[in-house]
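lol ok so funny story. i was supposed to be doing the assay writeup but got distracted and ended up predicting the structure for this chain instead. priorities right. anyway since i did it might as well share w the group, maybe its usefull for someone
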Amino acid sequence: MGEITEYLDNKGIQYHIEGIEVVTVCPTCRKEKLYINQQSLLYQCFVCKTENPESKYAKGHFSSYIKDMGDVMAITPIALPTKQKKKDQNFTELVTRYNHALSKNKMGLKYLYSRGFNETDIDFFQFGYAEFEKESWISIPAYENGIPVLIKYRKITNNTDAKKYRREFGSKSILYNQDCLKNNDEVYVCAGEFDAACMIKHGYDNTVAGTGGEGTLTSDMYDTLYLKDKFTLILDADAAGQVAARDVWAKRLGVGRCLNVKLPDDEDVNSFINEYGIEEFEIYLNNAHKFKVDGIISLVDALFQMHDRYTGTTEVFSLPWESVNSKIGGGFERKQLIVLGGQAGVGKTSGALQIGHHFVTEHKMPSLTVCLEMAEDKLATKIVQLHLDLDYNDINPNHALAYAQELEGVEMYFGYSPVITPELYYNTVKEARNRYGCELFIFDNLQLLVVSDKESDYAKAVKMFKRIAMELDVIMLLVSQPRKLNSERNPTYDDLKGSASISQGADTVILTHRKRQDKDGDGHESFVEKTSFIVDKARFASGGKTSLKFVGNKSRFEEYTNKMEFY
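and the output, tada:
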């Protein structure tokens, strides 16, 4: 019937169904009064709500229930020491000064009048005026517990090529009008601060907006929202806005509790209300519609997807190496399972982390890596090398705080559990996608999850990884080891353990291979730097072979820069 009942069935937990609610025993009061909504995934125990309102089971989200059962592994960012947490700013004095300056500035007032705000609104929202960097700006404060902890600036002149928006140094990333969430379980979400302010002005007090762009939902923002019952999304009508509504907000907060409002093209909330009035806007608001249910698609939509794929408009995310991209159709796509195979020591983990780093820095796609044979600090060291282009011998533990500062904003997460099961991993991936926005998942490696030699066990695991990619609309990169392999022969996917299951389930299989050589003539053979990348299976590309150079002291692969170097 759904993920709640499937989970409870797998755990052997008894329950019964009442309408759209799953009813089971509350872990706190031990009464069969825990009601879990199958659409919103929110729960509440009616006993705890009455007798112990502070109990975590008075109200919560099903993901918390799964965590309490021990079925989500710990997720951490790059495991480096960080400076002591900064004390939150209080910009009250600055907000007051800017607001006073606005009252005497005709240009700033004229701009806000043109956006539909009057003197009463300006005072209520504490809009202000500032001048810096040869530009004039409208200041927009955002409050947390009544204190302005963020000031965002909107440029209203064009004297330089400065960006349209910027924020006061030290500002905290919060939702605009975040304090309204304390008293409301139904929330309107807008693209920007002026959109939200316009709705608030017209009586929709339970309206928030992201302050980092409509496609930005930070983990802190997620934590303030995920216990709410219903979301009405009114983002921009263009393609970027609608993709953000579907693939960021609805996907992570839950499709079952999100409605979408699509205004006419080239209109945002503020401009639409100013031009057509609040009554016309409410017609669109009242016709908000649900997003399509995952896993169900019409024939016409399927044909449109076919058109997108074969006309090259499907979103493809490149790897760091163009020669490899050319063999796999340009890069990875969502819903794909990619297997990266090769013998021990050839650099599979380094290559996977390099892909993860590339996705975060180039595609702004956070990643989660679960590596069962390397400690988190070792993984973090490799990321430092990649990000700062450092030789391993140049890494100084005494500089850890400086490295942490340099890596701030690099959204790479790691997970580890001494005992791991397919179910534990699936739950962890879903938590990482929803809370942290992760879209690339790296699992290293398959043979440490499947400890038997039974093909059926490999089949079950590979199906689970493919299910993750398909159901959660993410990219799954699975590292795999081969059977015993002669280093002189190029491998195929038939050499991988569980090859039958991998060949059926994977969309792409990339095999890495390096030969051994006795460089010093002392009888000791080591891997050469030239590494074959063999695309042995590519569901939507031709496949083929290319070669990269493994720079071991920097934990990275590079393209060869000239033919002589290649040979």
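The longest strand covers residues 135-144. DSSP finds 21 helices and 26 strands in the chain.
back to the writeup now i swear
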